[in-house]
Every structure is written in structure tokens, then in C-alpha cells.
Amino acid sequence: MQTARVSSRYCDGRSFSFQSKRMEVDLWNEPRYSGIPVMTHLKPDLVDAVEQALTANKIDFDVAFHDLQTVIDSEKVMNAPSDASQAGAFDFGKYNEYDKVVALIESLAANNPSVAKLETVGKSYENRPIYNLKISSGKSDNKPAIMMECGVHAREWSSVATGAYLVNKLITQYGKDAQVTKLVDTYEFNVIVESNPDGYVYTWTNDRLWRKTRSRSSIDWLGVCRGADANRNFDIEHCGVGTSRKPCDEIYCGDRPFSENESRAIRDLMIALGSRIKAYFSIHAFSQLWMTPYGTTKKLPPNYTELSRVGQIGVAALSKKYGTQYSLGSIANIIYEAAGSSVDYAYVKQDIKIAYALELRDTGRYGFFLPQNQILPTCEETFDGLMASIEALQ
């Protein structure tokens, strides 16, 4: 398996995506016009054909990973516990398996009952609990709420790592860190650290690049194509632009809106929190983007000025520690048009007027294989950006 970086400067986005689907090339990110390369995962029998097509069309490219399996194997070694005593411990400087993620959030809730409560908001297709970690001081029934979901795309491991870091810091630094204490006193945080547990487990056991859920589609009667893209499955222009009705495709929108247990769990938490939600964040990787609605049209939302103001504060704070630069804009304008996302659903259907999707590091050097020495810095800077944006809410 090989991974190529293709220059986006010369790509017509829709044409490139269409041709990639025809050739069954896995696009890790979509073509844009901001200079960020498109990363493509190529099966061995497609390498020559794709390279010839790119060369013929005078599109610049280079090879990011000549042997992706070697990268995957190396990643497993790096994420292994350093010694036997650490076998069950959560390491914020590494990627952690599903059981360790669950153990962390269970421990945080059990050991800090005055500020944390763990609740099950749904079950995955394979019957794994989907947890929401509620973080707040004192009684919180009427507090304004912040909602975040991470890991809806299984292969985006840095999203889960960031969610775990965030809840740990909010809980363990309450009463110690002034910013954390003020925000936890002001808001009730609701964080789904792992929104797609089945897919995440599958990336550790079978296919590191798996993106979707692990459900079975009613229209795929042979059962050969598993899962749907949970972030194309929300009831907002379902199966519209930027999605696919084919169960084998990475962006398969599902048989119907909310066909996936995972998207229903996110929706149900939104509904339960109702008008108390003051801001919604969907955490993804990669490309270093801070995005507002809409994904379905390039038209900007009515309160884009306010979305931009709060987002710019977040982007500025995020860059302070390590100098990481993010781009800010609406989903359709900054990356691509895509229907059925949680952010558009939150904004349009649940009337949550501060809603963002974040794409974490990097901009295409490593893609989903963000190296170990960047995991903790990514978590730290994202935390800083999120907290600053929440402080900026009016």
C-alpha cells in the first residue's frame, strides 16, 4: 500500500473526487484551493495507473509513505506500553486502545463525583456503550451547556486523544487552574470522547484506515459492505451533496437519516440538553481547520460575523503555544460541500447558533498517522483554542 500527496493547486475538486471514486482511490482529505495537498491511499495495483494519470494531467505529487503497512506496524510498536506496569494505564503521549479510553473516563467519573458524571447516551451497532461525560460543579440542571463529540470517524485517532485530554484536564484541574475552574463553574460540559466505538476498535484490530461505523446496510443484502459515515447520516439534506448512496463507499450516507446508532446517540444528547447548549464542537482530523456551518451550501449562515469572531479567538489562542496555524471559514467554502453533518444538524435543526467542526493537525505530512511527538502538543493547543472560544461566548 502506498500513500501519495497530490497538489491541490491544480485540482478541480469535484472532478478529482469523482475520478478518485471511479478508480476506487481512498481520499484522506478532499481537494481544496489553499495549497494543502490531497492525501490518497493507493492499493498496489492502482499505483502505476494513478501516477500516470497525474503526470498526464501535469498535477504535482509526491509519495508520503512508500510502504504504509510498515508505518502501521511501527505505530503499533510505538503505542505499546513501555513496560508491564503500564499495560493498563492511559498514556496521553500515545494513542490508546478503546478499553483504555473507557477505563480513563470511568475512573475520572468515579474519582471525581463532585464534578463528573458518566452517562450512557446510546449503544453502538455491536452493543458497546456510547458515553457522555458530564462535567460541571454543583447542580447543573439549568446551566448553559457545551457539547463536544470526538472520534466519529474511526481512523482519526488524534480526535479521540484530544477528547480524552480535554475531559481529564477539565476534571483534574478544577479548583487548581483558574481558567478551568471558571469555565466548569459557568458551564456544564458534555463530551462524547468516543462517538464510534465499533469503528475505533476495528482500526486497532483489523483495518487502521477504517472510517465508518460497523453496521450492516439493509440495501446491501450480501453483507459485504459494512458501516456508514455517521457524519453524513444526520437529518439535514440526507444523502445530498458530498455523500454516496453506495454502501461500500467511505461517505455512504446510510439507508435513512439516523440509521446509525452512533448518529442517533449524538442527536439524542443534543435533544436532551435542548436550548441549554450554547456551543457545539465536532472534533476531526486532519487539515488544521476551524469551520462553521454550512456544509450543504457556500452561502454563509446569518450569524457568520459572530461565528467568525468567536472562531478567530479560538484560532489565535490555539496558535500561541506551538505556532500551529489554522484556517477559519465555513465547511463548504474552506473544504467541500457535504450534507448530513452533525454541525449543520446542530445549527439548523437544533438551533445551536455557535457550532463548529475542527480538523486537527496536520496539513498533510502525516495525515492520520500523526507521530507520537505531536499527540500531546495537538491536545494542548486544541484545549487552549476551545477554552478561549468558550470564554468568548456572549
Quick overview of this protein structure:
Pfam families: Peptidase_M14 (PF00246), Propep_M14 (PF02244). With 394 residues, this protein is an alpha/beta fold.
Describe the structure in your own words.
The chain is of the alpha/beta class. It folds into two domains: 7-66, no CATH class; 86-204 and 254-392, 3-Layer(aba) Sandwich (Aminopeptidase), CATH 3.40.630.10. It is 37% helix and 17% strand. It is built from twelve helices and twelve strands. It has helices at 13-22, 47-56, 68-79, 98-111, 157-172, 178-186, 197-205, 261-273, 304-322, 331-334, 342-349, 372-391, and strands spanning 2-6, 26-27, 38-42, 61-65, 116-123, 129-135, 145-150, 188-192, 277-285, 289-292, 327-330, 355-360. The protein has an eight-stranded mixed β-sheet, with helices on both faces. A four-stranded antiparallel β-sheet has the order 2-3-1-4, with helices on one face. A hairpin with a 5-residue loop joins β5 (116-123) and β6 (129-135). α4 (98-111) runs parallel beside α5 and α5 (157-172) packs across α12 (372-391). The longest helix is centred in the last third of the chain and has 20 residues, at 372-391. The protein is globular. The termini are far apart. The relative contact order is 0.13.
Integer average pLDDT: 88
Largest sheet: 8 strands, mixed
Number of strands: 12
- The topology string of helices and strands comes to EHEEHEHHEEEHHEHHEEHEHHEH
Q: Given the structure, what is the number of helices?
A: 12
Principal-axis shape = globular
Q: Helicity, in percent? A: 25-40%
Provide the domain count.
2
Tell me which CATH architecture of the largest domain applies here: 3-Layer(aba) Sandwich
CATH class division of the largest domain: Alpha Beta
Uncertain regions spanning at least 5 consecutive residues: 7-23
Q: Major sheet: order of its strands?
A: 5-6-8-7-9-12-10-11
N-C termini distance: 49 Å
**According to CATH, what is the topology of the largest domain?**
Aminopeptidase
CA-atom Rg in angstroms: 20 Å
Relative strand content: 15-25%
Derived structural class: alpha/beta
